[in-house]
């Protein structure tokens, strides 16, 4: 006679409880203010960048369309995660419905790799063409290139990441409904299931490292070629100008890689680090890049600064 799991005879859960920083309640108090400021900066700066690109005819070029697409992704990611986290901090609204939880998981799993690929790999290729083939830049980086890159990004993420929330949503959740996280991260939710989640773990690991690994390899190749081209420049000041061209992009790649490395190390050393640290990094990863991207690109891109200034003068 087969054994049975009594918990699986109970009613399937209809909602989840986000157990956000309950071990460190003081974190909620000091984190709510900077998180609110970062959220407002991210939303405001990305909105200004989108409006500037839309209204300024001089910015209707492929490079700025890529920046506009990046801003749109940042806005969606912020709206998906941060308002719910702030609602938990301020009003203790920890409950999230079954469908809303998996919708959040779907958006995060699709848009984060999409942002990574667009922000890191496509922009790295753009900088490579600008420095290594400047005369051919207008014929390579075209509106058709942006459209094809956007379609490729959507298809790549649909094939690679859509199965993650689908696999999780098809599990049976008949036991506890408390998620030890501030967001509906895949494994934080899946481990509440009565079913075997080995396939979920293996697929997320394989998909995550395949996407990240391919991005890092392409970035390394792009910047290797850029460095080789820069070292060959003979004209006075040409090297400094070339490095300045990809400076803002390199700053953001360095930040993205650093926060990812810290996140991995905290998982490896989880017995020595508070369980709330990876949760905090996961939340910040959805808002800090979104706040930095438009500021860094806006400050270091003269055309965008001039466009914003013209809009302010018109206003």
Given the helix and strand composition, which structural class is it? mainly alpha
Residue-averaged pLDDT: 82
Strand order of the largest sheet: 2-1-3
Tell me the helix content. Answer: over 70%
Number of helices: 13
In the CATH hierarchy, what is the superfamily?
Rhodopsin 7-helix transmembrane proteins
Query: In the CATH classification, which architecture applies?
Result: Up-down Bundle
Report the portion of residues in β strands: under 5%
H-E string: EHHEHHHHEHHHHHHH
Number of strands: 3
Largest sheet geometry:
3 strands, mixed
Number of structurally distinct domains: 1
Radius of gyration: 22 Å
CATH class: Mainly Alpha
CATH topology: Rhopdopsin 7-helix transmembrane proteins
Report on this structure.
The chain has 315 residues and is mainly alpha-helical. It has a single domain (14-314), classed as Rhodopsin 7-helix transmembrane proteins (Rhopdopsin 7-helix transmembrane proteins). 73% of the residues lie in helices and 3% in strands. The protein has helices at residues 25-55, 62-91, 98-132, 137-140, 143-161, 163-169, 186-190, 198-231, 238-245, 247-268, 276-284, 288-300, 302-314; strands at 15-18, 95-97, 178-179. The longest helix has 35 residues, at 98-132. The protein starts with 14 loop residues before the first strand and ends with a helix.
């Amino acid at each position: 006679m087969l054994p049975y799991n009594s918990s699986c005879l109970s009613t399937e859960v209809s909602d989840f409880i986000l157990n956000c920083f309950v071990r460190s309640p003081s974190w909620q108090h000091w984190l709510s203010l900077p998180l609110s400021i970062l959220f407002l900066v991210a939303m405001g700066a990305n909105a200004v960048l989108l409006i500037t690109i839309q209204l300024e005819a001089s910015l209707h070029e492929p490079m700025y369309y890529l920046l506009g697409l990046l801003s749109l992704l940042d806005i969606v990611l912020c709206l998906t995660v941060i308002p719910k986290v702030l609602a938990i901090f301020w009003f203790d609204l920890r409950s999230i419905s079954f469908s809303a939880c998996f919708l959040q998981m779907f958006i995060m799993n699709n848009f984060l790799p999409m942002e990574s690929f667009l922000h890191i790999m496509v922009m790295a290729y753009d900088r490579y063409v600008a420095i290594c083939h400047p005369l051919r830049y207008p014929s390579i980086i075209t509106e058709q290139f942006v459209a094809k890159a956007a379609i490729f990004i959507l298809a790549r993420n649909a094939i690679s990441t859509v199965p993650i929330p689908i696999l999780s949503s098809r599990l049976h959740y008949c036991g506890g409904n408390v998620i030890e996280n501030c967001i509906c991260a895949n494994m934080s939710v899946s481990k509440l299931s009565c079913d075997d989640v080995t396939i979920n773990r293996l697929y997320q690991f394989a998909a995550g490292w395949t996407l990240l690994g391919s991005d890092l390899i392409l970035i390394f190749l792009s910047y290797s070629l850029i460095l080789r081209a820069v070292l060959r420049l003979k004209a006075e000041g040409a090297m400094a100008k070339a490095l300045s061209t990809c400076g803002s992009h390199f700053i953001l790649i360095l930040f993205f890689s650093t926060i990812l490395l810290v996140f991995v190390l905290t998982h490896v050393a989880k017995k020595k680090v508070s369980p709330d640290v990876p949760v905090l990094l996961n939340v910040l990863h959805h808002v800090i890049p979104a706040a930095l991207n438009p500021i860094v690109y806006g400050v270091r891109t003269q055309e965008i600064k001039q466009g914003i200034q013209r809009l302010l003068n018109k206003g």
